[in-house]
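Journal club side-thread
Mid-discussion, someone asked how the predicted structure for our own chain would compare to the paper's figures. Pasting it here so we can look after the session.
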Amino acid sequence: PQGLSFEGSNPRHSHEWTVFRDTKIPEEKILIPGVLDSTTNFVEHPELVAERICRFANIVGRERVIAGTDCGFSTFAGFGTVDADITYAKLESLTKGAEIASKRLW
């Protein structure tokens, strides 16, 4: 695949950014890190989102990062779903965080 999409925000996986720091990936690959936790009703601050985006951009280059979410919202059997209003608030935070990161990186 051209892009590598992976969870990068939830407590189980947020430390794994070091894999990309310590292991070179092919130049043609684009990283799509999850910068929002899709399993909680807590809305990430845009500054935190920007920090996560910049962390990966500083490793592989700003042209090779597309911000994503950790999986989808409401995809966990047996778990409560993320409220729709919270989902939209999280996506708004993603937008604002990406704008902040873009200003820092360009």
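Post-session note: The chain is about 40% helix and 10% strand.
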